[in-house]
Amino acid sequence: MNPLKCIGAAFVLAFTCNAQNDLTPQLYETYGNYRESSLDKRRIKYDQIQPLIDKVRNDSKYVVKKVGESIEGRDLTLITIGEGDTDIFLWSQMHGDEPTATMAIFDIFNFLDSDDFKEEKQIILSNLKLHFLPMVNPDGAEVYQRRNALGIDINRDALRLQSPEGQVLKKVRDSVDAAFGFNLHDQSRYYNAERTPKPATISYLATAYNYEKDINEIRANAMKVIVYMNDIIQKYAPGQVGRYSDDFEPRAFGDNIAKWGTSLILIESGGYVNDREKQEIRKLNYVSILSALYTIATESYKQIPIEAYEKIPRNDRNLFDLKIENATYELIGKDYIIDLGINRQEIDLAGHNDFYYKSIIVDQGDLSTYYGYETFDATGYKIVPSKMYKGHDINTDQMPIQELLSKGYGHVEVEFPKNRGFIFINDAPINLWPKNKDFDEFILKPGSDSTFFLEKGGEITHAVINGFLLDLSKPLNQQGFGNALIYR
User: Fold this and answer.
1) How do residues 367-379 score in pLDDT, each as one tens digit?
2) Domain limits of the chain?
3) What is the 3-state secondary structure (H, E, C) of the chain?
4) Most buried residue among 90, 126, 366, 368 by CB atoms closer than 10 A?
5) What was the pLDDT predicted at 415?
6) With a threshold of 0.90, does the pTM exceed it?
7) Are 183 and 207 in contact (CB under 8 A)?
8) Residue 218: C-alpha distances to residues 245, 259, 265, 298, 306 (Å)
9) For the segment 250-307, what is each residue's pLDDT rounded down to a tens digit?
10) Which long-range contacts (CB under 8 A, 24 or more apart) does 150-156 make?
11) How many CB atoms lie within 10 A of CB 251?
């Protein structure tokens, strides 16, 4: 028996070896030493990762090979390291707007290139051969969209194989014939761990290979590794792990790769408080993947009972960015008590390097089974429509904004040319409205803009400006505001 394997009932109950107990906290604590600093925001592009691929290309530990091109002619590159007999295939960003794991992969390369953790890396690289295919959809990444340049979802092209990116993924899978595959994605930040207010920061899935969701040895092995990863991530994001739906999708790559004989592990990166750019979640990917590779290399995962997999909470999608509870809303002379669920939609700016927020009311009514990243109990508060303030210069730096907000003005009329749509210019927490444009009547309904006020005892105490809640008794510049809108 491999002496590195865990033995004994105590280790089975703990789901890990002592060495792994020592390793994973060190991975988390030392992460800053290996984080690839050139990738510091989600909207990463093909050109940003090419110098990083060139760096590993010049390192003799790696084999770097062009394995195809995207529709628009961007190279798809397979990066291989390790001398072991067990092949592992990891691919990221087959959806262009799901880049968290791509960043983590380059962090992992920095870890493997370092002089630290020599013993642990020796165990991984002598037992495993790792094959990385980062940024499967570089054309989608260029414009930060899910689909490729053909307009199709690559993850629904495993059968027809019309996309060159899908053809490459299938070709690599067939040539590598990996024991384990890591299908690395991002999911909506509005998923929560089942029946809890906590976001599903990381969700896992041992992908089904048929409609019956049968469990063979191949799928069971994926479940065991996931149980181990869940145990690790619970230390750093307690209660924030979900289990992705295992409904079989016959067109999907993950489901087919599991059918073709690879233990398929799906990792979905969701939301985390105050981590819109997913840098903490990227760190959790790094720790999760390296820990999984270590347990596969030592084969300690084999001791883990699969029953623990079903205990991981399922994903729900019951989160809002802002939830306002028990607010009073007057309509046609009568008061009603309602909850509001508000989401801050991201609208890409030109170049797809950054974004602005355009927030909307997603739902209203009884939202008692829903949660918010931010929740405000508005019991005793009345919803008050925003008013228009007229006669001020467009220079928001000179506006008495706190005073205007305290009087219920959420919009300021200014002079600029009209055209339809929204643009982001305004960091100040007040919306700008073009002169001579009709100011729409305030109607609270799903799909509408989210600017209004909360009043208590006849005094306006809070403003909701473009979906951001502001306590007017506190300095505005200390409240984490995103942006207001400029209507044109």
Assistant:
1) 999 999 999 999 9
2) 9-316, 321-487
3) CCCCCCCCHHHHHHCCCHHHHHHHHHHHHCHHHCCCCCCCCCCCCHHHHHHHHHHHHCCCCEEEEEEEECCCCCEEEEEEECCCCEEEEEEECCCCCCCHHHHHHHHHHHHHHCCCCHHHHHHHHHHEEEEEECCCCHHHHHCCCCCCCCCCCHHHCCCCCCCHHHHHHHHHHHHHCCCEEEEEEECCCCCEECCCCCECCEEEEECCCCCCCCCCHHHHHHHHHHHHHHHHHCCCCCCCEEECCCCCCCCCHHHHHHHCCCEEEEEEECCCCCCCCCHHHHHHHHHHHHHHHHHHHHCHHHHCCHHHHHHCCEEECCEEEEEEEEEEEEECCEEEEEEEEEEEEEEECCCCCCEEEEEEEEEEECCCCCEEEEEEECCCCEEEECEEECCCCCCHHHCCHHHHHHCCEEEEEECCCCCCCEECCCCCCCEEEECCCCCCCCCCCCCCECCEEEEECCEEEEEEECCEEEECCCCHHHCCCCCCCEEC
4) 90
5) 77
6) yes
7) yes
8) 18, 9, 11, 17, 12
9) 999 999 999 999 999 999 999 999 999 999 999 999 999 999 999 999 999 999 999 9
10) 150/71, 153/95, 154/94, 154/95, 154/253, 155/94, 155/95, 155/252, 155/253, 155/254, 156/249, 156/251, 156/252
11) 13
Q: Which two tokens stand for residue 86?
A: 């067990």
- CA atoms 224, 228, 234, 237: torsion sign: negative
CATH class label, 9-316: alpha beta
Beta bridge partners of 464: 452, 469
Q: Which residue has the tokens 């630290």?
A: 116
How many Å separate Cα 390 from the centre of its chain? 41
